[in-house]
Amino acid sequence: ARLSGDNLPPDDVFHFTLPVYQTPRVIVAEGITLGPETLRPGFFLRKALAAGGECAVRTAAAAQLEELPLESQTAVFLADPGKLSDRSLVRLERFLESGGTLVLFPGDRTRPEDYARLDFLPAKPDGMRQLAAGRQPVRIAEPSHPLFADTWDSSTPFPALPQQRLLDWKPLDEARVLLTIGSA
């Protein structure tokens, strides 16, 4: 923007940026990539991400994280990845440091010890529990937090989550619990 001169030249020109929307680019890294697609850990996740039609989803084996270019990705979903290599962990940490998003989906292959190796997490796993069948109680610790504000209330309850197991997490340093699922 250029303003008319007012004998103060430093404020005559103003530069600003306009954010340009880009389609999210996502990698779903699965621990199991053999067998029918419907039995793989990221099947429903891929379907949910594709539902909006504006998300570029790429599926890869968790072992491929050692070599896949992560820099151009928006998010990486770890769908029951199992034990990740040291090289994969370093690459994921760099991805997070550059502003990427990492989402964890525990499953049958991944044990709490495997998540304990992820030094960049704000919490460490403190065990795993089997959940009773049916809808699990959800408690939001900070309803005014931007993730939850004006999203869920008594008229629009938290969506039902089909879960069998739950990882208990112990927050580290400045981390805080925003949401708990299941009875503690």
Please tell me about this protein's structure.
- It is a single chain.
- With 184 residues, the chain is α/β, with parallel strands linked by helices.
- The protein is built from three helices and eight strands.
- Strands 2-1-3-4 form a four-stranded parallel β-sheet, sandwiched between helices.
- Strand 3, helix 2 and strand 4 form a beta-alpha-beta unit.
- The termini are far apart.
- The model has no long low-confidence stretch (mean pLDDT 82).
- DSSP, total strands: 8
What's the order of the H and E elements? EHEEHEHEEEE
Task: Name the average pLDDT.
Answer: 82
Overall 3D geometry? globular
- Span of the ends, CA to CA: 56 Å
Helix count, per DSSP? 3
Tell me the β content. 15-25%
Percent of residues in helices comes to 10-25%
* Adjacency order of strands in the biggest sheet: 2-1-3-4
